[in-house]
Amino acid sequence: MRTTHISGDGVGRGSLVTYSSGLILALVLTAVPFWMVMSGAAPASAVLAGVAATAMVQIVVHLVFFLHVNGSSGQRWNLMAFLFAVLMVVILVGGSFWIMNHLNHNMMPMMIG
């Protein structure tokens, strides 16, 4: 029932069923963290972990259902470009945190301890 339309360049396009299931999953993955935060039923650390987990799952849902990034041969270069972009963002953000931490340590040594 899940038919995928293939365009002339070999890239798969989603069907109505694919987009609908992606939309439903995205809505659920948005409502669950909202409920977790607004209900206050769990400690803050559990809510933070739950929101982070649903955010990661929602990223995967958007990549698969809406952007059609998967491991197929037609999408392999798109997947590699995406993974390279993720690596660059991790290096930039991690390096920025590292530099700021060392700046704080070197500029205010009397505050440590």
From TrEMBL:
GO process terms (BP): aerobic electron transport chain; electron transport coupled proton transport
Alphabetized NCBIfam families for the sequence: CyoD
Subunit comment: Heterooctamer of two A chains, two B chains, two C chains and two D chains.
Domain of life: Bacteria
Membrane-protein topology: Multi-pass membrane protein
Function description: Cytochrome bo(3) ubiquinol terminal oxidase is the component of the aerobic respiratory chain of E.coli that predominates when cells are grown at high aeration. Has proton pump activity across the membrane in addition to electron transfer, pumping 2 protons/electron.
Family: Belongs to the cytochrome c oxidase bacterial subunit 4 family.
UniProt source species: Bradyrhizobium lablabi
UniProt xrefs under Pfam families: COX4_pro (PF03626)
Transmembrane segment boundaries: 16-38, 44-67, 79-100
GO cellular component annotations of the record: cytochrome o ubiquinol oxidase complex; plasma membrane
Subcellular locations according to the entry: Cell membrane
Keywords: Cell membrane, Electron transport, Membrane, Oxidoreductase, Transmembrane, Transmembrane helix, Transport
Protein name per UniProt: Cytochrome bo(3) ubiquinol oxidase subunit 4
A Gene Ontology molecular function term of the record: proton transmembrane transporter activity
